[in-house]
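[recover] target loaded
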């Protein structure tokens, strides 16, 4: 995750400016294992039933993170939930590029059926779980948490939330993971 933060010009101890990240998605690209470079871009769409989504646009050969108008409003107002949305969707771009490209080849009704039939796997094999893990690690890097611990001694949910601009709930989950797997996370 340190490499991703470095590419995005964020240090390990600073909060990610999610609005800036969203607005600057056009400056980011994903390099697939075959060497093909896929540019990213962000956009705002009118949807009522979701925060937004990520898709591959075959015509323009770009991966788009599309935020609902309400999420964009929350981004403008620095709400942690909106920031988590952007980084979660970036996780899909980074981790699931091939799947996004394959889905773009399917008709919409087949895409919906594909998502409905995705049971029967372990949690860590789930793309949503993976994107959540990516978001947590990118927003609250273990080395950044370790630096807080060294400075303040005692870690709290609110200390992590304040430092990294995330919700108390997200900070609590990350702190529990950090405390239970500190050695592994700091390798």
């Amino acid at each position: 995750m340190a490499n991703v933060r470095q590419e995005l010009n964020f240090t390990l101890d600073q909060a990610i400016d999610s609005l800036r990240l969203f607005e600057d998605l056009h400056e980011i690209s994903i390099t697939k294992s075959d060497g093909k470079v896929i540019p990213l871009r962000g956009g705002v769409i009118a949807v009522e039933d979701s925060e937004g989504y990520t898709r591959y646009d075959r015509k323009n050969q770009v991966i788009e993170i599309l935020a609902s108008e309400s999420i964009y409003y929350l981004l403008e107002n620095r709400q942690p939930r909106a920031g988590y949305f952007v980084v979660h969707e970036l996780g899909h771009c980074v981790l699931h590029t091939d799947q996004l490209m394959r889905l773009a080849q399917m008709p919409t009704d087949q895409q919906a059926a594909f998502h409905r039939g995705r049971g029967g796997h372990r949690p860590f094999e789930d793309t949503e779980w993976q994107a959540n893990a990516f978001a947590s690690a990118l927003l609250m890097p273990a080395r950044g948490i370790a630096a807080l611990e060294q400075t303040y001694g005692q870690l709290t949910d609110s200390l992590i939330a304040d430092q990294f601009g995330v919700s108390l709930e997200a900070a609590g989950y990350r702190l529990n993971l950090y405390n239970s797997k500190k050695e592994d996370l700091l390798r």
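[recover] notes: Residues 7 and 22 are 14 Å apart (CA to CA).
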